[in-house]
Amino acid sequence: MAPNNKISKIQELVYEIRVGEVMKKDVFTVSPRTHMSVLRVILKENRFSGAPVIDKGELIGIISIEDFIKWLAGREEDCPISEKMTRNVSTLYTDEPLTNAISKFDQHGFGRLIVIDRYSKKLEGILTKGDIVEGLLKKLEIDYDDEESRRLRIQHFFEDISADKTVLLFQYDVIGHDFKRAGECSSRLKATLKRLGLHPQTTRRVAIATYEAEMNLIIYTDGGHIRVRVEPHEILVRVEDSGPGIPDIEKALQPGYSTAPEWVRELGFGAGMGLNNIRKCASKMDLRSTAGKGTRLGIYVSVEDGAGCEAN
Amino acid sequence: MKLTELVQKLNLSVRSAKGNLEREITGGYASDLLSDVLANGEEGNIWITLQIHQNIIGVASIKDLAGIILVNSREPEPETVDKAEAENIPVMVSELPTFELVGRLYNLGVGGTKE
């Protein structure tokens, strides 16, 4: 067989994971003065297969179900645990890698190992082979999830494209007065930008501005289009409708100015803050409107600005 | 403070995304104007409002809010619950009015966005 120098993920993990990470922390302990007849009840009721024996805070031995069976088979009289326990306890330190624990299990054939702190020597937990398997599986699951979400994100998407100019275009169609689907376009756009691996702040600024623009289309117009142009350095959201248009843009841009009907305001919209919010999120905004004809709004968010504060 | 603790301490009824209550709350924001929340709410905030229509979920999702508490025992509309489940955003109901609820939140150590 050819020598296999490849180190498997499991091999890597048993060096990486520490005993303290996978051990069971809640350990049931017994006193050396407890009688074997009492131990019988404890083991039976809790389904333990053994317990560390602690005296004045210190680990002095371990009593297992094997010790108990031996005592039963010998038909001896009741006695304190201290007379029947195993005194030479094999221990592990919390900061040891799992590989040490595995070789100890292999060497001695123990069912469980007591875990203590390297410096204080105090009991910290108990480790079984099952805990090791469980710990490895959990760690593998976490790594697998990370890997999966990384694949989902097309990170460095633009860097992978070789061209003198790269432009991505998305279009969303907004139906006027359809409050049930309000916000859908901006949600879809947000998810798309997220998958492109854009900075979260940039994505959020574009999403907030687009949401406000989408709401304006829904509240005031019969519908329109949102076209998004994504370039490596800048995102341009172009919003277009065919009426009714804004008679006085200056006024419309004033915070708190609104022409929304009462029922729209009751829903929490139409507070006269939409265009203002858009302006706050944008690096540059361009608004043109002709009464009776329609409105064109351009929202520019530069990728550099986007990484800064969203509410400046 | 986590949402689970709020649910327990303020006796809130959870109406959606019951599996997403482990998030750490960054603070709170109270408003019934959606644009106001979009402008001033912060990521991870708990939002206190009396609006119960489904557009509150869109706002919470875009701002990455931790969850929404509806005041005065106002129940979310069925579409709101559906959308909240789809977006995995916890919507909770409190029997308290906004003023009392915000007071309790402050007592529990949940602050506002201007501190």
List the helices and strands and how they pair.
The complex is a heterodimer of chains A (312) and B (115).
Chain A: H1 9-16, H2 19-22, H3 36-46, E1 50-55, E2 58-64, H4 65-73, E3 91-93, H5 98-108, E4 112-116, E5 123-128, H6 129-152, E6 168-175, H7 184-195, H8 200-220, E7 223-230, E8 234-241, H9 249-253, H10 262-266, H11 274-281, E9 284-290, E10 294-302, H12 303-306
Parallel strand pairs in A: 3-4
Antiparallel strand pairs in A: 1-2, 4-5, 6-7, 7-8, 8-10, 9-10
Helix pairs in contact in A: 7-8, 8-11
Chain B: H1 3-9, E1 13-14, E2 27-30, H2 34-40, E3 45-49, H3 55-62, E4 67-70, H4 78-87, E5 91-93, H5 98-107
Parallel strand pairs in B: 2-3, 3-4, 4-5
Antiparallel strand pairs in B: 1-5
Helix pairs in contact in B: 3-4
Could you explain the architecture of this structure?
The complex is a heterodimer of chains A (312) and B (115). With 312 residues, chain A is an alpha+beta fold. Chain A has 2 domains: 9-140, CBS-domain (Roll); 160-306, Heat Shock Protein 90. Chain A contains 12 helices and 10 strands. Chain A has helices spanning 9-16, 19-22, 36-46, 65-73, 98-108, 129-152, 184-195, 200-220, 249-253, 262-266, 274-281, 303-306; strands at residues 50-55, 58-64, 91-93, 112-116, 123-128, 168-175, 223-230, 234-241, 284-290, 294-302. Chain A has a 5-stranded antiparallel β-sheet. The model of chain A is unreliable at 308-312 (pLDDT under 50). Chain B has a single domain, classed as Udp-n-acetylmuramoylalanyl-d-glutamate--2,6- Diaminopimelate Ligase, Chain: A, domain 1 (3-Layer(aba) Sandwich). In chain B, strands 1-5-4-3-2 form a 5-stranded mixed β-sheet, sandwiched between helices. In chain B, helix 3 runs parallel beside helix 4 (78-87). The longest helix of chain B has 10 residues, at 78-87. Chain B starts with a helix and ends in an 8-residue tail after the last helix. The mean pLDDT of chain B is 94. The A-B interface holds A 179-180, 182-184, 186-187, 190, 204, 207-208, 211-212, 215, 267-269, 271, 273-274, 276-277, 280, 311 and B 32-36, 38-40, 49, 51, 53-59, 61-64, 79, 87.
